[in-house]
Write a structure and sequence with these properties.
Shape: rod-shaped
Number of strands: 3
Radius of gyration: 32 Å
Number of helices: 8
Strand content: 5-15%
Order of helices and strands: EEEHHHHHHHH
Helix content: 55-70%
Length: 170
């Protein structure tokens, strides 16, 4: 609980020896317990506000969406997910946030594994690529082999990654 403050100067109030009077340590103003109870009751009483209330310092939906999009563009999906969820906390029907959250994303670890598999393919190490893809996706060795063989001649690394990712979703 915050210390009692003088209404005149804002100084701290200290209880006097009689335990029924308080005195401001700065300006010397004296307060009785009854007066302080009345002041305290006014502070803690019901407050009625009419009309719109503007609260500053709270993130808006648009700023949260912007931050979420920035994180998503940097492939920091955990942070993006956090911000899209904050949008839904404010606006549960926000279509942008809901759509992004409903779309499957690869984790950083999965992205790294896909990049390693693509690197194996580019270096001609087909066997390691097949094993890694099989381990990562849980697909059978034959299916993993077919996917790796279908893309082993691709020159563009991004094309390889796109095929690997689409194979994971199927």
């Amino acid at each position: 609980m915050e210390a009692l403050r003088c209404q005149i100067c804002g100084g701290s109030l200290a209880m006097m020896e009689d335990t029924v009077t308080f005195i401001c340590e700065y300006c010397g103003t004296k307060y009785s317990k009854q007066v302080l109870q009345k002041i305290f009751a006014e502070i803690t009483g019901t407050v009625r506000v009419e009309g719109p209330v503007q609260v500053e310092g709270i993130a808006s939906i648009s700023s949260l969406l912007q931050r979420a999009q920035e994180y998503a563009e940097c492939h920091n999906y955990e942070k993006a997910k956090e911000y899209y969820n904050r949008v839904l906390d404010i606006s549960p029907t926000n279509e942008t946030a809901r759509q992004w959250l409903d779309t499957p994303r690869l984790s950083k670890t999965e992205q790294e594994k896909i990049a390693q598999i693509a690197d194996c393919i580019k270096k001609g190490n087909k066997l390691n690529a097949i094993k890694a893809y099989n381990y990562m996706t849980g697909k059978g060795l034959l299916e993993s082999k077919e996917i790796i063989e279908s893309i082993q001649d691709y020159e563009n690394t991004q094309e390889i990654i796109n095929v690997l990712i689409s194979g994971m979703k199927n």
